[in-house]
Amino acid sequence: MMDSVLTLLGAGILEALQPINLTMIIIGCTVGLLVGAMPGLGSVNGVAILLPITFLVPPTAAIIFLAAIYYGAMYGGAISSITLGIPGASTAVATVFDGRPLAQSGKADKALTAAAVASFIGGTISVVLFTLFAPPLASFALKFGPPEEFALMLLAFATFIGLGGDDIPKTIFSILIGLVLATVGLDIISGKPRLIFGDISGFLHGINFLVLAIGIYGIGEMLWTLETSQGKVTVHKVKMSFSSLMGNLKEVKGYIGTTSLGSVLGYFVGTLPAAGATPASLMSYGLAKTFSKNPESFGKGNVAGVAAPEAANNAASTGSMLPMITLGIPGSPTTAILLGGMIIWGLRPGPLLFTEHPEFVWGLIGSLYIANFVTLLINLAFIPLFVKVLTMPFTVLAPIIYILCVVGGYAPTQTMHDVWLMFVFGIVGYLLRKLNYPVAPAVLAIVLGPLAERSLRQSLLASQGDFTTFVTRPISGICILIALVLVCYPIYARIRKRRSLDAAGAA
After folding, report:
1. Measuring CA to CA, how many Å separate 435 from each of 23, 181, 276, 310, 484?
2. How many CB atoms lie within 10 A of CB 434?
3. What distance in Å separates the CA atoms of residue 337 and residue 326, rounded to the nearest whole number?
4. pTM for the full model?
5. What pLDDT, in 10s, does the model give residues 441-477?
6. Three-state SS for 195?
7. Which of 15, 57, 211, 374 is most buried, judged by most C-beta within 10 A?
8. Where are the alpha helices (DSSP H) in 389-466?
9. Domain segments of the chain: what residues?
10. Which range is most confident: 37-41, 337-341, 375-379?
11. pLDDT the model gives residue 78
């Protein structure tokens, strides 16, 4: 069995190394990097915009090109997250938490290197898992019904406790604010409008996550910087050389465990149609902080806080292709566009694809291995250029950030309502920071809120209101148990720390 897999993989890599396919990989990774770095665009818009161009090349080269864009965009979001504090896409919002503080302390090269290496590790682990366990994992993902999906979201919320530091009540308050904002729009069951603030039509489509994230981390961060610096912003000089790059690469062993855990978690979450790269990166960040020896350093510039979400979102992008190829079920919005492209090219995704078009399937899998290396090399080569962004005077940088925020706020729905809403969230984010409230849990809650609500209501409708359905099913029961452990862990750790301090004081 293993020999046949290796033989097919070898043939797939050779297919991916064909001149036209290799060219598509290099161009796709580079374009994806640029698309991912632009706030408001991301992999979904990038793949959708460039889909018509692929009809100029054969189907295998076309899907390889689009998959390479997807891969490159996963890292691209980290660039603006670290250098400007604006998440290029929802998948990179967790990277802002520690990437931006690292950049502000003159360690942008370290954050960018960590993001590149973690992305490579996450991509490699996920592609290996994809190669070895595609059929069994596809069948396992099918066992995830609404109760399991809700339990998984509950598990993600449990990791938020670790994001709030020692102030658990403020963290819970922040989560609840995010959940309330997530309910704005149309009711998913009845279709009736709710919380639209006096029939304001702009709220009917809900609150777009990127509008909230860009407002808080773009406008809010800019307002905070202007106040704390009183208009005199010091430019962060970052020295970038080959020796410093090698030094940053040597530090990888310090966060290899966190990165590996995030990769496996990201791949598994990515295989679930209800999840995707954004929840995976947020869960990975929360787990990294919860089990860190220095959890208080997260949010202040911990390299592991950059590595964990970047490994997870890259792994999830590969994982989301699994249900698309094996079952014909897209695992993310981007793979939904890829699925449409495959159907247009006459390729029918599903179990028979492996037998009817093995050269296509294994060529795609082989291209992912090569795209991994290509993206890593391009990322490391361009780090000095990304670092130069930070050497620009703030009088130049602030207007650029402002324009990118407006474009990013307008792009998702193309309505001025969201642009004004983004400014409101920027002011709210600035005030929350002044009051020392964590904004990260609110941002994360608005991402997972709609997913959790949908799976909760579907589960209760199917079980006729019986809440025991969440604990009687094995997978959901285990997830809920782990969630309880994660919630109780910080409380236990605090009690233990207090006892040890009392014992030391008594001695």
Report:
1. 51, 20, 33, 29, 29
2. 11
3. 16
4. 0.70
5. 777 677 778 878 888 888 888 888 888 888 888 888 8
6. coil
7. 211
8. 394-410, 416-434, 440-462
9. 2-506
10. 375-379
11. 82
